[in-house]
Amino acid sequence: MQVAVVVPTYNEAENIVPLLRAILALPLDTLAIVVDDNSPDGTGALAQEFARLSGKVEVIARPAKLGLGTAHLQGIRRALSLSAPLVLTMDADFSHPPADIPRLVQAAAAADLVIGSRYAPGGRVEGCSFWRRALSRAANLFARIALGLHALDCTAGFRCYRSDLLRRLDLDAIRSDGYSFLVEMLFACQRAGARVAEVPITFKNRRL
Are 84 and 165 in contact, with CB atoms under 8 Å apart? Predict the structure, then answer.
């Protein structure tokens, strides 16, 4: 396995199977790890059935909506237990383009953490309201000033981590949840001396 792709889900029944197909169709040796928070719309059951047929998907079924941060951590720990050299995290709604995964993986040859970035030169945001874009920009500026972060997109969830970096982190000490988890993880990586790179992507607001 070259890369384990961690996908937290909650009510993504319309997206999960097309996303998994897109991930497994890439010219990479991939395993997808779906972490589902007991989605009422049956996302978990769809992922389980796809996993049974494909053999390249694992599903972690959680009993309730326990939060984005713990979902990421549970998926990351599972990927590390499988000795995946690279661990990639992404949303399930196609806002993070699966076709860009190979670009993040390629960049990880020279970096410990690669961010699929809306705000790196060449990055774009499509389909989001002015106020959502403004809030995202403000949150990133605040995180960079308050924590001394160097990345331009501190709240991005589209990331490729080298497993040796993740093993250096004290994952038990990560306490944030929601999108603040992404900021805390980036802070922990930077504090651990990680080489951080950003690859520009086009972030598209969900259609389904």
Answer: no
Q: Find, among 206, 3, 205, the residue nearest to 104 by Cα.
A: 3
Q: What pLDDT does residue 140 have?
A: 87
Query: In terms of C-beta distances under 8 Å and separation of at least 24 residues, what long-range contacts does 123-128 make, across chains too?
Result: 123/153, 123/198, 123/200, 123/201, 123/202, 123/203, 124/200, 124/201, 124/202, 124/203, 125/202, 125/203, 126/202, 126/203, 126/204, 126/205, 127/204, 127/205, 127/207, 128/203, 128/205
State the pLDDT at residue 142: 87
The count of other CB atoms within 10 Å of the CB of residue 202 is 15
pLDDT tens-digit profile of 154-203?
999 999 999 999 999 999 999 998 889 999 999 999 999 999 999 999 99
Local structure of 61: helix, strand or coil: strand
Rg (CA), the chain: 16
Q: How far apart are CA 122 and CA 127, in angstroms?
A: 17
Q: Is the dihedral of CA 147, 131, 201, 10 positive or negative?
A: positive
Residue identified by tokens 């396995």 is 1
* CA dist list (Å): 133 to 23, 59, 137, 203, 208: 27, 32, 6, 11, 20
Beta-ladder partners of 36: 9, 61
In the numeric block, the tokens 């719309």 are attached to 41
- The contacts of residue 207 (CB under 8 Å, 6+ apart) are 94, 127
pTM of the predicted protein model: 0.95
